[in-house]
Design a protein that fits this description.
heterodimer; A: alpha+beta; five-stranded mixed beta sheet; 5 strands; B: alpha/beta; FAD/NAD(P)-binding domain; Enolase-like, domain 1; five-stranded parallel beta sheet; iron (chain A); 2Fe-2S_ferredoxin-type (chain A); Adrenodoxin-like (chain A); iron-sulfur (chain A)
């Protein structure tokens, strides 16, 4: 199972196992990682699962496109070049060890 | 027995029930918490059932809201397949005893109702034929998903969100799809005429047929399976699959048994307390006042409300500070169309259309007494986010400027 390492807004690190095909958001919520609200459950409608992908991982996840890109413009926390909505990052074996920081406000 | 905390019983294992349990634990509540749900599954997301799950893009494990070990870690006792048959309250106290249909007794000193809603049944002959489906829970969706590959002609009864989402999934699979709506426009209960008209055109453009002002009088069948839908004008629409989405009814039977005030739903105040202040309720089963819509009791059937009201309910159970109420919002995905709704448009006296509906990217902003109350944003996330933010801080957007697509809505937000 690919692992995800999330830094929550309180500074704690959480390492969770993801199913291949599950999103980073789903995996974090299912394990009760604090900081991701995910009101819409992954429908790309609320911008409350905002994360910053660590620099070395961004090449593997890719950057936000189209609708996600527009939603991120209006997210509660600062938009950065490595901003993603974590519901739109699907886990694969290639993403094993993915590191993300959860945005301080959702 | 009188001093020890026997714990909290939450009846209903949907978004609201889970939300109450999580909020109690997050607030540091350490007494036992039991969630009792009548379904076989642990709490799961309902919205994808008529969207990604039905389309086969999501599996059942994806639907689950929490991993199994979450419940153990948080010491939340989850009972599935549990029907609460009876509740007896203690004299002069908030506590009591609930009994499940299998005879299990659950003692509690705090009680929360999150009983949800049931799909309204189509009251016509033939509604129990094979091939007639509702869409509310996992078994419904699983069954429908299994029938789609064999189906050719689909009739969707009801032009609300669930019906239109299911119609879009069926049509995307290339099936022949007819939507039958009793009212003269789609989404009549929840949207303004330009949105209704837009969705009619959008579904027709994608190859579905939309019949408005048409009521179903019977479902016809052969050898136990549905073969057609009979309308009041005598027309028969051939069908091998019928999907019924004609709204929901809040489940209020237990609340009534407890003597709580109920209208269409369980009546709660802005702290999610029922008419018995020791008992809270949250989610689709409730009718509530809302600060943005004074003087009314509203039923909000949405994930956002369930999650938000659950936090309020948990705070009330613990007599803690009340969380701020969020702006109601909703979404619907139909084929490649994303509709995002901020606020409640009911009671609008004016609206502004921003953008061109024919381009499938536009927003309708709703006003009452000159004040912004809601927006329906079609493929327009910036507009949605701007209106949600404006409503959240009690601000407005001047209707005279709102139609100008050359100016971003968020720059027009005006504090009042």
């Amino acid at each position: 199972m690919p692992k995800i390492i999330l830094r929550s807004p309180d500074g704690n690190l959480h390492t969770v196992d993801a199913r291949v095909g599950a999103s980073v958001m789903e995996t974090a919520v299912k394990h009760g990682v604090p900081g991701i609200v995910a009101e819409c459950g992954g429908a790309l409608s609320c911008a409350t699962c905002h994360v910053y992908v660590s620099g070395s991982c961004l090449e593997r996840t890719g950057t936000a496109e189209d609708f996600e890109d527009e939603m991120l413009d209006d997210a509660a926390a600062e938009r950065r070049p490595n901003s993603r909505l974590s519901c739109q990052i699907r886990m694969s074996d290639e993403l094993d060890g993915l590191e993300v920081e959860i945005a301080p406000e959702q | 027995m009188d001093t020890a905390e026997t714990g909290t019983l939450i009846i209903g294992a949907g978004e609201a029930g889970l939300g109450i349990a999580v909020a109690l634990r997050n607030a540091g509540y350490t007494a036992p918490v039991t969630i009792s749900g009548s379904e076989a599954d642990a709490p799961y997301q309902r919205p994808p059932l008529s969207k990604e799950f039905l389309a086969g893009e999501m599996d059942e494990e994806n639907l689950l809201l929490r991993a199994n070990n979450f419940y153990q870690d948080k010491e939340i006792r989850l009972l599935t397949n549990a029907h609460i048959e009876d509740i007896v309250l203690d004299d002069n106290a908030a506590g009591g005893t609930a009994t499940t249909s299998s005879g299990t007794e659950i003692r509690f000193d705090r009680l929360a109702l999150a009983t949800g809603a049931s799909p309204r049944r189509l009251p016509v002959p033939g509604a129990d034929l094979d091939g007639v489906c509702y869409l509310r829970d996992i078994p419904d969706a699983r069954r429908l998903r299994g029938l789609l590959p064999e189906a050719r002609r689909v009739v969707v009864v009801g032009g609300g969100y669930i019906g239109l989402e299911a119609a879009a999934v069926a049509r995307t699979r290339g099936l022949e799809v007819t939507v039958v709506e009793t009212f003269e426009r789609l989404l009549q209960r929840v949207a303004a005429p330009p949105i209704s008209e837009f969705f009619r055109a959008a579904h027709e453009k994608r190859g579905a047929r939309v019949l408005l002002g048409a009521s179903v009088t019977a479902l016809q069948g052969s050898a136990g399976s549905v073969t057609g839908v009979e309308l009041s004008d005598g027309t028969v629409l051939p069908a091998d699959l019928v999907i019924i989405g004609i709204g929901v009814e809040p489940r209020i039977e237990l609340a009534q048994k407890l003597g709580l005030d109920c209208g269409r739903g369980i009546i709660v105040d802005d702290a999610a307390r029922t008419s018995n202040p020791a008992i809270v309720a949250a989610g689709d089963c409730t009718m509530q006042p809302h600060p943005l819509y004074p003087g009314e009791l509203i039923c909000l059937e949405s994930v956002q409300n369930a999650a938000d009201q659950a936090k309020v309910a948990a705070a009330s159970l613990l007599d803690g500070p009340r969380p701020e109420r969020a702006v109601p919002w909703f979404w619907s995905n139909q084929a490649d169309i994303r509709l995002q709704i901020a606020g409640l448009s009911a009671g609008f006296d004016d609206y502004v259309i921003r953008g061109e509906p024919g381009s499938e990217q536009f927003t309708v902003l709703y006003y009452r007494g000159g004040r912004l109350i809601a927006a329906d944003a079609v493929n327009s996330p910036h507009d949605f986010m701007a209106v949600k933010r404006a409503l959240g801080k009690g601000a407005t957007i001047d209707p005279a400027d709102a139609a100008n697509v050359g100016v971003q809505l968020k720059t027009l937000i005006r504090e009042t």
